[in-house]
Amino acid sequence: MVAPPPTSVLPLAGAIELASHAIDERLADRVLAYWSLGVERPPARVRVLPDGLVDLVFDLDTAEAHVAGVVRDPFEATHQRVTHLLGVALRPGAAAPLLGVPVGALDTGWQPLAALVGEVATALAARLRDLPGIEPRLALLESFLLARLGGVDPRVTRALDAIAASDGDIGVARLGRHSGASPRNLHRLFHEWVGVAPKRFARIVRAQAALRRLRQRPPPDLASLAIELGFSDQAHLSRELRALTGLPPTQLAETFKRTTDSYKP
Fold first, then answer.
1. pLDDT tens across 11-27, in order?
2. pLDDT value at position 7?
3. Which of 54, 133, 209, 258 is 20–30 Å from 171 (CA)?
4. Strand ranges of the sheet holding 9-13, from the earlier edge strand across to the other edge
5. Which CATH class is domain 154-258?
6. What is the pTM of this model?
7. What are the residue ranges of CATH 1.10.10.60 in the chain?
């Protein structure tokens, strides 16, 4: 399965190679994409946008394994050295069984994966570093994930499906009816399984839907896009995108136009 176009990392300065990679169909309901990032001539600067996902990140130069929690607000990062990263973008709900902790307890920044899953993470990072090329590395990652990814609470799955089907244009009351959980219980379940509250997650999903449309060539008219995604008007769309990305829609569209990668969603 080919990963969707990137909408979570925007290259801002320097030479950055970003790519997404096909996933095994057996993991399609738990993994959204594999991704890689390369910087051969540092420094290079990127802006990281909220996408509602937990990522596993493997540094192929230092043989270190990290986990990055759900990004709640946009931030910028600078790669100061030659860098080769391989990552796994886990679908919402998939991280909790793998990591054994509530997703809401994870920091946004990187933390050692070994602190959560044990020394198997250190051994995995070393093997990924030593393998020759992307295909053997992805095969090893898939074996690791297939052995450890578990099921998701069906109430969370139903709520996530409803959010995805509506591109985030859904209220908490309707989510409760779809999921079979009260709003209070749904908030608790999302803290444990997703990492952010249902309303916040739906906002992220709707902003990401807008970003995917803005990547299209040519990009859609903003007023039409606002109507399509259930915003009250173009100004409402602009405010939401600025709040979730730190950038206005026109600047986002120009940034996407300059970017030719196929990174993670």
1. 888 888 888 898 999 99
2. 58
3. 54
4. 9-13, 44-48, 75-79
5. mainly alpha
6. 0.91
7. 154-258
